[in-house]
Design brief:
Length: 478
């Protein structure tokens, strides 16, 4: 009797291969579709936010015009407090600019696997934050039309810049940082801009992207030179991360003002800048993730990694706070002791305790994993840190120069409505540029996201329908 061999079972569909950092992203085509969708026609919500920021910028312009017409007396600045809200906000924005290059350059050199989804927005934040910070030295001038006196051009026309002044070093440090950050930001976008050029059918966008893409076609030769240029720029930008805020800290530490003259300021300022910059990155990314449906690209794993960095820098900042108070007590210098006693219990006690609460106590919640992976809780903590870091600069600047060596000089500074309007307007200025950015340029790197996704194989298409088409024509190019 003949035996009948049962037919072999049909081949089962292969298990889709997924990226460990982006498990919900299935294909290159999905990346193109989701990221380039953000560049489509903006909706009502975007227009409302954009018009709100324009109103804020208009308020800043009006307040500045009042100050120019009626004079610097419209501010609350007086003797001995010559640096108030303007310099506080300048240092705040320079600190915010710090973290973008940290995330982009240093994490690139260390090949951090969670960098791809967040670094483009962080780089844009750096450029726009430096642009915002650069307004304040000019606004702070009583006669802003003489702003060119700030520039360290060669000695001529009886102008003798003091090249030993940290204020002059600021011009070099911040200017160099802005130049390298802007070039780094632009070079990293070229492949994505070329992909956007190939994907769009809007004539003016195609012209814009064609000009920005510099004729990029994605050849092996172009990728080779691009990768080298990006690596060298990352290596060049890394020391700038440490140098720029160190130089800003020397604006204070090189003086003999009680509360400023300390060697801890450079690492203290650098850690604080990274701390505040990471908080601002989260403040930006959380609403963007919600509005554009980017949950597959900005996962809890990304926020968890950023939270750990925030927790680390929060501990460094808290240690710096404690060290300052300990050294003021241990040094037995009466002016130094008085300055720190005044910070905690004097006229500005409220600002000091806001600073300590927001920067030292609130971030301790990040020890809990549930908090680190809760987007709402993390967003709230980031807002507290942003507030706390602005007050940190206010406390350092205002409380120290309001309470120097001579008791007869002590006074209390309160900002005027002009200063507050310009400070609020600076946030509107910053977010106005960011809103334009996310509608004109890819805010998440398409090319680097494809690097961490599994390369498409023929077996992936078995039982999964037709293979996804990549309109950019860059499948597997990198």
């Amino acid at each position: 009797m003949a035996t009948v061999t049962p037919p072999p079972p049909p081949p089962s569909a292969p298990t889709p291969r997924r990226s460990p950092t982006h498990p919900q992203v299935e294909s290159y085509a999905q990346v193109n579709r989701d990221i380039f969708k953000m560049l489509s026609r903006p909706g009502k919500g975007w227009w409302m936010l954009f018009l709100t920021t324009l109103a804020g910028v208009g308020l800043m312009g009006f307040a500045f015009a009042v100050q120019v017409v009626l004079g610097i007396g419209m501010t609350g600045l007086m003797n001995p407090v010559g640096w108030g809200v303007y310099i506080t906000t300048f240092v705040f924005w320079v600190g915010i600019a710090h973290s973008g290059t940290l995330i982009s350059a240093i994490l690139y050199l260390f090949r951090a696997p969670w960098r791809q989804s967040i670094y483009r927005a962080a780089e844009a934040m750096t450029v726009f934050a430096v642009m915002t910070a650069g307004l304040f030295p000019i606004i702070h001038l009583g006669r802003p039309w003489l702003f060119y006196y700030l520039l360290p051009y060669p000695n001529q026309r009886l102008i003798w810049p003091n090249f030993r002044s940290p204020l002059l070093w600021d011009v070099f440090a911040v200017g160099t940082y802005f130049t390298v950050s802007a070039v780094f930001f632009y070079v990293g976008m070229i492949p994505d801009v070329a992909a956007a050029r190939d994907a769009t059918d809007v004539p003016w966008r195609r012209k814009l992207y064609s000009a920005l893409a510099l004729g990029w076609t994605g050849t092996d030769r172009e990728w080779k030179h691009f990768s080298r240029a990006y690596l060298y720029l990352a290596a060049l930008a890394t020391p700038l991360v440490l140098s720029v805020h160190s130089v800003v800290s020397w604006d204070f530490a090189m003086s003999i003002v009680p509360g400023w003259h300390t060697t801890i300021f450079a690492p203290y300022f650098v850690a604080g800048a990274i701390f505040s910059g990471l908080a601002m990155v989260i403040t930006i990314l959380v609403p963007m993730r919600k509005v554009f449906g980017l949950q597959a690209y900005l996962t809890p794993r990304h926020f968890d990694a950023m939270s750990k960095l925030i927790l680390l820098t929060a501990l460094i900042v808290s240690y710096a706070y404690a060290t300052e108070y300990f050294m003021a007590w241990y040094s037995f210098e009466v002016p130094e002791r008085n300055a720190f006693f005044n910070r905690a219990f004097g006229d500005y006690w409220w600002a000091t305790w806001i600073m300590i609460t927001c920067n030292a106590f609130v971030p301790q919640l990040l020890w809990f994993r549930n908090v680190r992976t809760s987007i709402g809780a993390l967003f709230t903590i980031a807002i507290f840190i942003n507030i706390g870091m602005w007050f940190e600069r206010f406390v350092i600047i205002v409380s120290s120069i309001a309470h120097e060596y001579m008791p007869w000089q002590w006074d209390t500074y309160m900002p005027s409505w002009v200063e507050m309007a310009i400070m609020v307007g600076s946030f509107a200025w910053f977010f106005m540029w960011f809103l334009l950015f996310i509608r004109l340029l890819p805010p998440i790197s398409v090319a680097e996201l494809k690097e961490v996704l599994p390369s498409p194989l023929r077996s992936d298409t078995v039982g999964a329908g037709a293979p996804g088409h990549d309109p950019s024509g860059h499948e597997g190019a990198r």
